[in-house]
Structure prediction request, 298 residues.
Amino acid sequence: MKGILFAILGGICITVQGVANSQIGAGIGTWQAATLTQFTGFVAAFILMLLFRDNSWKRFKDVKPLYLMGGTFAAIVIFSNVTAIHLIGITISISALLIAQLAIAFLTDRFGWFEVEKKKMRPGHFVGIGLMMLGVLILSM
Amino acid sequence: MIVGILFALVGGALVGLQNIFNSKVNEKAHSWATTMLVLALGFLASLILGIIFEGASLFHVTHMKTWYYFSGLIGVGVVTCVTQGVKRLSPTIAISIVLTAQLISALILDSLGSFGLAKVPFTWSKLIGVLVVIVGIVLFKVSDAHEEVSKSVKQSA
Prediction:
């Protein structure tokens, strides 16, 4: 039960984050919003890392440099998300974002990109993505 | 409409890539160190791109409100809740619930016009659209789980 509550709250937080970014972007500019929110988030995560005595940053050197760079995408993610929310509203933005996100996860699993173990495609994957696209189509009508 | 959807698709594709890369980091380092690194690099990239596109005007911020300073903390809430959810449930169920909650809260916020955003009026076709997307997500995720189950059966055989 607690797990379900955490998952629900996590989902709400992601949506609220997108909306808040979009609102801050309208107030002070999109790049300013991205820079500011990432900075305060970083400071908070840094403090929590120290509080929980997480010294595992020492192992960053064991990770391929490419994978360490994932965080940089956030700049473009926030810019795209804020722009999309302004243009088409929250619901369609998030639906389209989820489709692309799941499609990348699916392709990575399918073709074993980035040293991820290959998985087989199942009819349910195709029907699932098809339904998601149909849903976005209904939303955009 | 198309331009907005294209922006959302580019953003989503990058979120997908970022999830994969971050989980690679998370295989070696723990959650807080990983989160710290991800946000530090997100900050640096935003700062650099902001300077490239806006120059010095990036720092000439007017209309600042106090809550803007605290909005970054929502990101910490996201990491905590999603990590706890995945730990307590299976990844498939947890992520399906996360995505569903994301969409339903989006529909509610759109309909209420919260946070000063333009109100997008609620219609039944929107609710049907969201429900169809959710069924698609659950089906997609359940197909992933099916793969995992058949693999573990093979391993134990």
The radius of gyration of chain B is 19 Å.
